[in-house]
Amino acid sequence: MTGTLARRAVLGLGAALALPGCALRPTLEGAPPVALPDTRQIDIAAGGHIHRIMLAVPPAPPPAQGWPVLYVLDGNLLFAPTAQLMRNRFARGPGVPTQGAVVVGLGYAGAQVLNLDARTWDYTPPAPGPATDERGRREGGADAFLDFLDATVRPLVERTARVDAARQTLFGHSYGGLCVLHALFTRPGAFQNYVAASPSVWWRNGFILQEQARFLEERRADAPALRLWVSQGELEAQMPADPARAAIARERRGTDRLHTLLDGLRGAPALDLRFTTFPGADHGGAMLPAAQQALALAIGGRT
């Protein structure tokens, strides 16, 4: 075929593809998955589980003192939206000054959004009584998990990104919120900010209130200042219409114990306490607003 004939063939094919019904249809079959820019992950075996550590670094040079760090429990569920919220702060480009934070998701290997067995062990404090819950899941591994975070995850983050050791925030929801309270009450120097969203204060008949009492006994006015932000969905304080869910709500009585916890913490020395209710949100619906507030607290210290 001569050059002229070849060019005519190509032009003819282009014209045919432009006709209605003749265009090649794109397909998503076999297309690559969506990936968040400036993120990475690694799997580490510890405590009988394969932990997945997820990291998002702001798309900008770090400040002189380093980035603040937000550690996010239930990372398979909450890392992606929290990391995207952080990245959105830089959407207007490098010419617009803004602040960010390193976001660290603490999750588990695998496709599960919630690894119920693993989080039940990792997020519940050691307490007297049975070693498992009513479903046979092991409980009481929060200290081992927090040791893993401190000894393994933190050094890993510090080797990867330039961070500010004086601006560290721990955020968790539900059982994760219980773990945050346990961390505050038993190792208050580990973080500067603690964010407990819809914390499971009902667990083991309010065992966390015993840890709170010991924390308050030892708290002194000259202790390093800490911030605790507790939140809850508005609908969590209401009794569900479904009889089965209402029975669970009565058994847990989480709202009553939550207010007992908050009343006890008000006026605690060197503790900046804040409580937020999210209008129209139930237990699950309170997660993302709490993540947004946790990020704001981690970056700015207060909103």
Write the layout of secondary structure elements.
Layout: H1 3-18, E1 39-46, E2 49-56, E3 67-73, H2 75-88, E4 102-108, H3 116-123, H4 142-160, E5 163-173, H5 175-186, E6 193-197, H6 203-218, E7 226-233, H7 243-252, H8 254-265, E8 271-278, H9 287-300
Parallel strand pairs: 3-4, 3-5, 5-6, 6-7, 7-8
Antiparallel strand pairs: 1-2, 2-4
Quick tags:
single chain; 303 residues; alpha/beta; 9 helices; 8 strands; globular
Outline of this structure?
This protein has 303 residues and is of the alpha/beta class. It contains nine helices and eight strands.
Q: Please state roughly what percent of the residues sit in beta strands, choosing from under 5%, 5-15%, 15-25%, 25-35%, 35-45% or over 45%.
A: 15-25%
- What is the share of helical residues? 25-40%
Shape: globular
Radius of gyration: 24 Å
Q: What is the count of β-strands?
A: 8
Q: Compute the number of structural domains.
A: 1
Structure description:
This protein has 303 residues and is α/β, with parallel strands linked by helices. It is built from nine helices and eight strands. It has an eight-stranded mixed beta sheet, sandwiched between helices. The mean pLDDT is 89.
